[in-house]
Amino acid sequence: MASENPFHSIFKTLERPDGGEFGKYYSLPDLNDPRIDKLPYSIRILLESAIRNCDEFQVKNRDVEKILDWENSAPKQVEIPFKPARVLLQDFTGVPAVVDLACMRDAMNKLGGDSNKINPLVPVDLVIDHSVQVDVARSENAVQANMELEFQRNRERFAFLKWGSNAFHNMLVVPPGSGIVHQVNLEYLARVVFNTNGVLYPDSVVGTDSHTTMIDGLGVAGWGVGGIEAEAAMLGQPMSMVLPGVVGFKLTGKLRDGVTATDLVLTVTQMLRKHGVVGKFVEFHGEGMRELSLADRATIANMSPEYGATMGFFPVDHVTLQYLKLTGRSDDTVAMIESYLRANKMFIDYNEPQSEIVYSSCLELKLEDVEPCISGPKRPHDRVPIKEMKADWHACLDNRVGFKGFAIPKEAQNKVVDFDFHGTPAQLRHGDVVIAAITSCTNTSNPSVMLGAALVAKKACELGLEVKPWIKTSLAPGSGVVTKYLQKSGLQKYLNQLGFNIVGYGCTTCIGNSGDIDEAVALAIADNDMVAAAVLSGNRNFEGRVHPLTRANYLASPPLVVAYALAGTVDIDFETEPIGTGKDGKQIFFRDIWPSNNEVAEVVQASVLPDMFKATYQAITKGNSMWNQLSVPSGTLYAWDPKSTYIHEPPYFKDMTMSPPGPHSVRNAYCLLNFGDSITTDHISPAGSIHKDSPAAKYLMERGVDRRDFNSYGSRRGNDEIMARGTFANIRIVNKLLGGEVGPKTIHVPSGETLSVFDVAMKYNSDGQDTVILAGAEYGSGSSRDWAAKGPKLLGVKAVIAKSFERIHRSNLVGMGIVPLCFKAGEDAETLGLTGHEQYNIELPSNVGEIKPGQDVTVVTNNGKSFSCTLRFDTEVELAYFNHGGILQYVIRNLIGSK
Q1: 157 shares its domain with 191
Q2: pLDDT digit string (tens) for 585-603?
Q3: Domain count of the fold of the chain
Q4: Which domain range does residue 806 map to?
Q5: Which stretches within 136-260 are classed as H helix?
Q6: What confidence tens digit (pLDDT) does each residue in 94-103 have?
Q7: CA gap 514, 431 in Å, rounded
Q8: 783 φ/ψ angles, rounded to the nearest 5 degrees
Q9: For the segment 323-346, what is each residue's pLDDT rounded down to a tens digit?
Q10: CA 164/CA 647 separation, integer angstroms
């Protein structure tokens, strides 16, 4: 059991300059260990946490030594525990987390425990930002209209979250219409340094959204985890993690004129994806840091999931402190933050000599080498320089279907489709833009690119350029501050003139909440098999994500989103071809509307003011009339409504007893799905709209829900029945069992029937048959979605055999009791001659003590094939979860057993 902290001797007082004290803290310098000066700053945060929480029970002295000896221990993939300071949720991922907490309270009750032990033990912030859709666009009334529709669709789940904010202690819920979770975190929620009961320690956060990493730009260690891991962290359980390698990324020089932070981040993303940083921290340093604003850093940090890193970390320096003051943090708070971080060797001062930090590997980028670019058409790390875009687009039309191809026959590439748009003759070609959205946390926190977009709009309007009326344009700011500075600059009217009216405050197009495109446009695309394009300032452009009808999706800076909207197509060379014709009949080129860096900087300086942040966040938790009028039930146990199609009690704890079930082998399992490489959580997890012919739609219609009220999968994440039916329901999914057919179906091997994935899974379940999934490399890359693991669990999947896994998804599979196995190097289903029509046997010891992390396991098929795989339980704690049937069951049994 826990004992007194062995590091009490280094528990020191931090004094104020005036003779008072800020508080007490665990002093790293007082360890008198020369290794500390060589540690990356990101690792020092892990070290401080281990020292502060060391009790020789959850965190042991030997864990501290592993971190101190990071240079030697990290290459050995050693396990350490980590206790984050807080947890961050958004509503899509937050609803199932709160559902699980409510369900855990019931389970505690049934097992005779104290249900009030199920309560967040660290601060939990939940920002409702993922439910707004762009139903109304290009309208002065769009914000109000979209919010009214948002509340109509989501009243029940919003009321549930409001209940949770009252029923659970230590939980703050930020109401809808406030902004994007990561920008609210950056501008308001982040502490940078905590002062809890007089004890000072670094802010750190895990979030149920993979882009939690945005906060790394502020020097706060944060990254995305699965909802199940986040719930354990809320309940005081240490996170088990492999001590990561740290890639040092040196920045030098200065960005050239006309180059944006988005261009930089897309360049960094491509470099790091190529270098290979999955499971690692990336730490940015170098004299080029002086040239990067905090917002630029946050833009880079936000994209960590796209380059595959756990974190993209920027240590706290003078730029960080300036930003804290800009965003309304008090002078006393900023003084405390600086004093603490300096005293504990966690502050970097570029005016002083730097200690020689050791990194696992190093990269360097000269900022002047960055050039304007976009990424696409299907992946965020497929960067295309703007000057090469036209040629790249034509290559994509030619290429066979893949990440860079659409396989459009030569004779069809110049097809022109005539259609009628509300009485106006219109035409559509391959590559025409039908959605142009300034959205997502990546860029809307950055005043330079937001005001840059507004300057592009101003120049375009003055020259007489217009955006075609059938292009769905939208602007979804990350916080109310953006609106304030766009209005103060006098530039919002030009964005409105081009159709970029504000549509709401939240994550919209980037997560598929783009809303419908005009029916005439939709028919022109669908009836003629056109490759229509979307251009958005987001971070994700995977297939089927933005909109079902936009097969080409490009990530771009906000100014470029405006430029491509004006051009109306991605099939353009901005250098040589005009973007349009002005009011005097003169051809207007890209260079005519592009602002200089100085123009942008002047507007930012004059328009972005500290009072805007203070005014916005003083009122943020007060909500709005629609939120405040929601009536919610009282009581600490939730009254489940069996008729609800939004909130449903999940079956995870059905028949649960105090005795762990122990490890399970997999016997005579059929292959539910057989995948190639790069299957993302967008392919696995229910997302976007609910298709009218899907099992989820059938479920809703059987319960009297009209099609217009289906809403999205994301909004119904609190109902396991719908989410199970939406698992693997992506319309672009490629399952080798179907022999080239694309779509959310699979084969029931015993009968040979082709049915929806859900229906096949249920046939196997009713017959008592185990199932497995075969997959290629990077299985589960993308967002940190808990339903990408919960869904397969509910479908009855017992194991996934892949070439490699994305970090968060593998962890989530373990948390749900699914066995992750990796093929040996150089092997996969294809090289082993596996078709997916076999039955699979995976024998594991019945005693969890006989299983070792990373051990070899033999898989045998019913047709005589036998091959060895690596068992990807990476830590002893993960084995404990597996023994208990999952992480939530483990937590419940431990809490009941604790005093």
Answers
A1: yes
A2: 999 999 999 999 999 999 9
A3: 4
A4: 666-897
A5: 142-167, 181-184, 227-234
A6: 898 899 999 9
A7: 18
A8: -65, 155
A9: 999 999 999 999 999 999 999 999
A10: 13
